[in-house]
Amino acid sequence: MAFGKGALMSMSRGSICRRCLLTMKSMAGGGPISTYAQQRGKKTWHGPKYQAKIDQAQADWEERAEKIKKGEIQNTWDMFVERGYVKDTAGSTKSGAEVNLKCTVFRNRLADFNSGERSHETIRKLMLHKRIGAYTGIDPTAPSLHIGHLLPLMPIFWMYMHGYAGYTLIGGATAKIGDPTDRLVSRTPLKRTDLTMNLTKIHYQLKALWMNVEEQARRRGFEKDWAWKRAVVNNSTWWNSLPLIEVLKRLGDSMRMGPLLSRDTVKNKMSKGDGMSFSEFTYPLMQGWDWWHMYQANGIQMQIGGSDQYGNIVTGVETVKVVRDNEPDPAKKIEGGPFNDPVGFTVPLLTDSAGVKFGKSAGNAVWLDKFQTSEFDLYGYFVRRSDQEVEKLLKLFTFLPMENINEAMKIHSENPARRVAQHLLAFEVVGLVHGINAAHRTALNHQARYGKQIDIPGVTLRMPKAATEDTPPSILDAPKMDMQLPESLIMGKSIGRILYAAGLAKSASEGHRLATQQGAYIGAMPGHKRTEDNKVMDYSQLSFTPIKLWFPQETRNYLIDGKMLILRKGKVQIRIIEMVSDEEWKESGQTYPGEPGTGALRMLRQQLKMLKSGMLTPDEVKTNLKNHVEEEAPPPGFMKFPDQDSYAIRRATQELMDEIHQKEVGGGSPREERGE
Fold it and tell me: According to the UniProt record, what class of enzyme is this (predicted)?
C-alpha cells in the first residue's frame, strides 16, 4: 500500500489525475503535503546524500509494512490495544470509494479501507501504511508534570521508537484560558510569573523525559533510524503572531453552534456551574487549531489525550478538516481522504484497587519533579501497588516486552511477598523519569533502608559512579531551578555578580567573563537591540538572548512582571530567579555566594581574632570550623554552589591553623592560663 519513489516515477503524468498524484505523494512522503512545490505536483530537489536517506527510510518503511502483513512483527496499533492504551477513538471512517477521486488508479490502492469501518480499524491501517506523526498536549498549570501525564505520553514514546514522529506540545497560549473540561467552576487565572516558571520547568522536564526515552530505546534493542523525529513545541509560537481574522474566517464560518453547545462540558457548566465564558467556550477550537498548525507544518495526523479529552479530540478532528478544506489558495490545498484525515484516541482513566485516581498519594499528586516527589518516594509509590494492578501497570508504564512481563508475573506469583513485579515496575518508572542511574541508586537505597534483598528480573543493581568536575552537566542531575535573590543584588549589582550568586559561575570575575564572551543567556525577546525599550520575553513563550555586560540598572529591562529573571548557561543549567525585597531576604535566613558579610574569608578572620584574644579555645575553633563545613554541605534537593577557594582564603586558613598549633603546643590559651 505504501508508494516509494520508483512507483511514483513509473506512472506517467497523463495516466493519473492531479488529485491522485498529490495524495500518492503525501503517502510516499509520510505526511500531508505542505511545501508549495509538492502541492503543485512538482518534485522537490535535495542533495544526493540527503535524497538517499529519504529513499532508504521509505524503503525501510515499506519493508516493515510487508513484515507486519506477514505476521513477522506486530502492528504498533495492535500493540497499543494489547497493552491497554486505547479507550476511545476518533477519526475518519471514509473508504477509498468515498474520497471522490476522478480516476480509478489510486482508488484501487485504497481498497484496504472498507466503507463505514470504525475509526479503530482506520487507525490500524493508517499506521501500517504511513509514517504519521502524533502529539499530546500539556498545559503548564502546575510547576511540574505528575504521574497522570505520563500515561498519554507513553504511546507517543512508543511511536517514536517505532519510527513515527512524536511531538509533545506545551500549551503556553491555551494555559492563559484554562481547559474547562469536566469543571463546574472556572480555573483561577495564572499569574504571569507562575505561568513563566511552570512553562520553563515543564519544558526541561519534557527534554529530560525524551533523553531518557532515547536511553530506554537503546536498552530495549531499538536501533535509531535517520527518520526518527521528536520535538517539544509551544503553541505560543504561532498564537502570538496569528491574526484573529484568519481563525474566524477559516474556522468560524463552518463550525456550527449546535454541536458545540451540545457538549457535556458546556451544558453542565452553564446549568450547574458558574457559567461558560467565551474564552472557555473557544478552548477546544484553540486546541483544534494547534493540531491543524502541526498537521500542515509537521505531518502530525494523530492526537493522543487523557480520558477526559475525548470531546476536545473530536472537536479537533473536525477543526482540522474544516480549516484544511477552507484553504482559499488552491496551490496550498491539502487533499482529504483516509490517508490524510486526522485521527486520535484517549487513554483510560486509571484508579487503584481502592478506587482512588491513579497518581494521587494521600490526596497529593505524585510529581515527576524530584524536588516535589523524591526519586525514593516515586519508587516507593510503585512498590506499594497491589498485586491486582501491577501487571496492568507494567504494560502501561514500561517498555518491557510482553514476554518479559509475563515471565516477571510468573516469578512474582511464586512468592508474592517478595514483590518482584512491583520492584520491577518501580525500577523501570524511575529509570524513565529520572534516568537509569537514578533507578539503580534508588533501588539500592530502598534495599539499604528496609534491609531486604531486592530481586529485579533482568537487572543487576549497581551503584553509579559519582559525578566529578570533569563530568559534563546533565539535565538529569541539575540542581533545583527556582530560587530567590534580594532586590539589592538584582537591581544594584553587575550581571556577573548575579551569575555568581545564582551558581552559574564560580566567581564574580568568571561571571563577567561569561557575559563578555556571551556564554550565558537571559530570558528575553531575541533580536532586541540594547536600547531603553522593554526587552522582557513573552511570559508564555520561552526564549533567550545572550547576556552582555550592561549597567546594573539595565537588568530591570529583563524582569518578567517586575520580579522574575530566567538565566541559562549551556543547554541545561537553568535558574528561575524570583526577586524579593531585602527585608524578605533577611527574614528568610538564606545567603548567596558573594553576599557581603557571609564569605568564608570573613569567618576565618573572625575566628583567628577571637582565638588570639582568648575568647575561643583551639578546640572551640575546630568545632566551629567543622560545623561550618557541615552547614556548607547542602541537604538533598538544594543547590551546591562552587567552592570559594582563593589565595586569600588559603592564606587565612593557614594562619588560623598555625595559631591553633601554637596555642596547643605553647601551653594553651590565655583563658586556660587564667583558669577560665
Answer: ligase
